[in-house]
Amino acid sequence: MQYLNKATGKGWTQIDFYDLRYMLMLLDKYPATKDLRVNVIDVAIKEINEKSPIKAEYELIKKGRKYTAVKFTFELKEKDKKKKGDTERDPNTIDWVNGATDNELKKAPSWQTKGLSDAQIRKIGVNKQEFIDANSGKISPNDHRSYDEIFESWKPQLKDPKQAVTFNKVQELLDRKRTS
C-alpha cells in the first residue's frame, strides 16, 4: 500500500518485513526485527533526512505480539515546498510579452522609462541629420521639410517614453562622445 499527494508533497508506503528483507537482499541477515531496525532502517532514515530534500519517518506495524511491517511516511522539507501561485521567475529568461529579460529591464536606461530630457534631446540634435536618416521610416515620402523642422516636430515624441523607444540610434547617439 502506498499514497502520495503531489500538492502537499506528503506520502507514505507500507512494506512487509519479508518483502523489505527480500528487496534489500537481507533474507539471511538480521533475523531479529530490532537488528534490522537499528542497522538498516535507522541508518537509511538518518541519511535520507540529512542528504535529501525529504523528511522521512517510520513506524513499526504490529499484528498480535509480532512486528510484521514498517510504514514509511515522508514529506518535502519546509524550505523545498513550493506554494501554489508562488512562482519564481528566472531573471535571464526572455519575457514573451516585452521581449526582454528581467535583468535587462532593470538595467534599462532612464530615457526608456521616463522619456528623453531636454539635454538628451539637444545631444541627439548635434547629430540631427544622422538621427533623422536612421529614422526615415517615420517620415512620409512626400514630406519635404528640412532636418530642423522634422527634428522639432519629433521633440514631443522623444519626451514620451512609449514613443521614444520606437526611435532608432537613440542610445548610440547618447553614448557618443563629443569630438572637439
TrEMBL record:
Name the domain of life: Bacteria
Pfam families, per the entry = Rep3_C (PF21205)
Residue ranges for the region (Disordered) are 78-98
Q: Which InterPro entries match?
A: WH-like_DNA-bd_sf (IPR036388), WH_DNA-bd_sf (IPR036390)
Q: Where is the composition biased (Basic and acidic residues)?
A: 78-92
What is the protein name given in its UniProt record? Uncharacterized protein
